[in-house]
Amino acid sequence: MASVASSVTFKEFCPLYYLLNAIPTKVQKGFRSIVVYLTALDTNGDYIAVGSSIGMLYLYCRHLNQMKKYNFEGKCESITFVKLLSCFDDLVAVGTASGRVAVFQLVSSLPGRNKQLRRFDVAGIHRSSITALAWSPNGMKLFSGDDKGKIVYSALDLDHGVCNSSLVLEEPSSIVQLDYNQKVLLVSTLQRTVLFYTEEKSVKQVGTQPRK
After folding, report:
1. In the chain, what is the straight-line distance between the N-terminal and C-terminal CA atoms, in Å?
2. Deepest of 40, 47, 87, 190, by most Cβ within 10 A of its Cβ?
3. Which positions carry the signal peptide feature in this UniProt record (predicted)?
């Protein structure tokens, strides 16, 4: 007979000082000293991704105990959402306060995996803050939502370095969560939750009452 594990009421975890100490608390911009705020977080078994208010993505590799930094060229703006994915290659999608979305295809030391850092941009569709990102399990599809209710689908061809994006859905309120599985995109907004069937391009609302 299998033993029943005892229930745990409290469990304490120590702060990740090794991670926090690798991220500066301030940076110098000309004559100004700017405080760095941590604005977004995602984790998986391989990485811890932390977005910041200065537009810098800090990516900590758990296996190598190394911190790497990635940023957007041009204007320094706050990162609002990050989403990791481990499939054949390791990917991280990043969204910003102005609506920029970028995908980083990470370098791997494993044989047959990606050997050069590559970046893909979702350009010119979002015009406001990114509030949600969702991957397909194989890394070929990325969905991004913003605080104006727009949802963009990006098809990635990692072998040829191509990213094609299009607007697939517009909701009347801010997107708060996205999740994708088996050709169905779950969309939660400030007002309602819907299922978007990507093949039929049809929408089915979950429940009947609007969210207050």
Report:
1. 48
2. 40
3. none
3-state secondary structure at position 197: strand
Tens-digit pLDDT profile for residues 113-128: 666 788 888 877 899 9
Q: How many CB atoms lie within 10 A of CB 156?
A: 24
Distance CA 141, CA 135 (A): 6
- Position 72 scores a pLDDT of 76
Question: Which superfamily, per CATH, for 17-21+34-176?
Answer: YVTN repeat-like/Quinoprotein amine dehydrogenase (2.130.10.10)
Q: List Cβ<8 Å contacts ≥24 apart for 42-47.
A: 42/82, 42/83, 42/84, 42/92, 43/84, 44/84, 44/85, 44/86, 45/86, 46/86, 46/90, 47/84, 47/90, 47/92
Helix (H) or strand (E) holding 79: strand 79-86
What's the chain's length in residues? 212
Task: State whether residue 11 is helix, strand or coil.
Answer: coil
